[in-house]
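Lecture notes, structural biology module. Today: joint structure prediction for complexes of two components.
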Amino acid sequence: MARATPPGPTRTRLPERAFDERLERIRERLAEAGVDAGVWFGATSIEYLTGFDHIQTERPVVLAVTQDRLEITVPRLEVERAELNPRIDAIHHYRDYPGGEPMAVATTMLADLEAHTLAADAEGAPGTMGYQGPTLAEAAEVDISIETQDWVSRMRWEKTEDELALIRESARWANLGHRYLADFTTVGEHPATVSQRASMEASRAMLDTLGDRYVARTRGSGPVHAGYITGPQTSLPHGHTANRRLEAGDTLVTGASANVDGYYSELERTMFLGEPSDEQEHYFELMLEAQTIAIDALGPGVPISHVDDEVEAYFEEQGVSDLAQHHVGHNIGMAGHEPPYIDSGWGDHCNREATNYDPEDAEMAPGHVWTIEPGIYTETDGYRHSDTIAITDDGIEWVTYFPRDLESNIIDLE
Amino acid sequence: MARATPPGPTRTRLPERAFDERLERIRERLAEAGVDAGVWFGATSIEYLTGFDHIQTERPVVLAVTQDRLEITVPRLEVERAELNPRIDAIHHYRDYPGGEPMAVATTMLADLEAHTLAADAEGAPGTMGYQGPTLAEAAEVDISIETQDWVSRMRWEKTEDELALIRESARWANLGHRYLADFTTVGEHPATVSQRASMEASRAMLDTLGDRYVARTRGSGPVHAGYITGPQTSLPHGHTANRRLEAGDTLVTGASANVDGYYSELERTMFLGEPSDEQEHYFELMLEAQTIAIDALGPGVPISHVDDEVEAYFEEQGVSDLAQHHVGHNIGMAGHEPPYIDSGWGDHCNREATNYDPEDAEMAPGHVWTIEPGIYTETDGYRHSDTIAITDDGIEWVTYFPRDLESNIIDLE
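The predicted structure, tokenised, for the full assembly:
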């Protein structure tokens, strides 16, 4: 079942039509909700709708979308970057926070748009890095009506072909980073510096290959990241890279990704430095079979929780339930880790009134892009592959393609 | 005024007494508030009080501190890491989210602690990565009384000598990364790969120098980061590292830091690749003078807003107010960017009823650790140094020490 062939031609930048489609859908929602404007404070949602990305800090950014306008309130330091964006009709700004008055500027923007009834992603800006200003309603000089909505977070679940193409491109460069990581791994090296070297060389190859097609998204670093946790740290799902040089017999749990116009893939492998022991081989094969069972269970219309249940049943049958520490996977896209989750409780979660979800959200659907990563953790070592796999109209598409089998994941000592 | 001598012996790990002191202060607050327990959902606050760090995801972590116990609720995948922590008296866990019931486990933990009146940092877990479960009160089977508090966020403002020692150690490795960054910079190189190479070599030196004294805090990467934005991107305070090789005449805006047991420093320099033009030299000197004015204004008891006002007045006098895009600086510590802020509006902010702050929070105090980074941005280039400077009982301490003057920041073409 291991994939050995990278996918075909890919894309490095979202096309205009992606934003046209997103804004059209939002404007339909505005009409259905009978409100004048949609408002967003969340950086990822603002980027999803406009392509304008920014670092979410204590300085609020407020996006307003009406049926015919798209305007934004930003701190002074984002004005020139916002001006580069062709979709933004007008930019309003305040000097800085807390000296400036972001919500006063935003409510003036909304008043000028004649937007009195709003559907917003929150009542005000998040408390990131200590923002403590008023909510929109508190800042407004006239009565405004605000309902909250979660439209963008939900829209992000089903990726379009354009988005999937970016995730495929990410997987190509992640694969190269991962290849370098394996190639540079030798006994006596620092895990951290092997990781950094692999990231550097794969980033360089990506920059030189893509040229003008590369969309700059990092600050003072490269677009590809490949790294690992090694030896005893692998027994912890969220372990750290210790200051312990690589030793023969080490288990490695790798991770590689690349940022392609803001989208990510995820590739993880359990590897061994030198021939694995019988125990290492035993748990590797158990983990591999669990991942295969999960992947075989994927498809459109499948209850999401079913995939977790299948893996749990296998672990129980093999008597290793107590070595599993987490559910099978999550979605990936603009965030490296985003809902929905492959969890035995996902179906109940969608049926609870307290959540924003509906019963139909309990099923896999075309456009979902999953990480499939069941893990086993002994007292000394961890075992986890992660592949990125998309749900299609009639099945699945493997997005990551580094070989999964034991032989391919053993690094020769010489 | 440029500092050329690194500070003396430093520390790489917070001592036990740091946690003893923090918990003692929290227990005093509990007694004053007359509540049974303090509760925290925020990852940074939980780390501050216990030393247990974790990635904040959709899986809630809940810390409870009573007068004689410290207990925590975690997802299954954090159990073994939490067990390594000597300060945690008991660990409770749920399998995962949303299949597990984190708030049910947490409320049982609180009931067993006989904690019925609580002071919590929020009513429930944050919505990070899609958490949508109940609040604590909604999950409790018996009546509990919850008030919210911001104790840890506020306690973090005044760093102790132990914390400052970690930030000093961070500055040493940031300085080495920055030195390498300048040394590796040549015409025709990729900015991203120069950054990655400097980060790798400085990380290697840090790992080899500290040995067992190194506290692992990264996953698949090194502890030092040095990088820059270059050429036209420098005109944007939050620009990206473009895929454009270095050219003679480029302005570089650098940034370097290192993670020392979870603490950071910040070092930024405006550098030139080859001799600067008259315009570049002109704005560099203006920026340098603005930074000097800000640093001269620092000290215990100084109104925080005064420092921003002084820089604004200088920019106005020089006729470059329209080239400034942000306030002078922020605090730094466990987060790379944290309150309070050197902003002309800070004093009013503290006096507003809507904020959590008091009038005395408007002044600089011993233990504040500031980044001082006024910037000037023309249509083509940006100019910004950032130094990390601590407020002492009777003045200031320079924590970063890379030379600030023009000559030291020109990189020879050959």
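Point to remember: Chain B has a mean pLDDT of 95.
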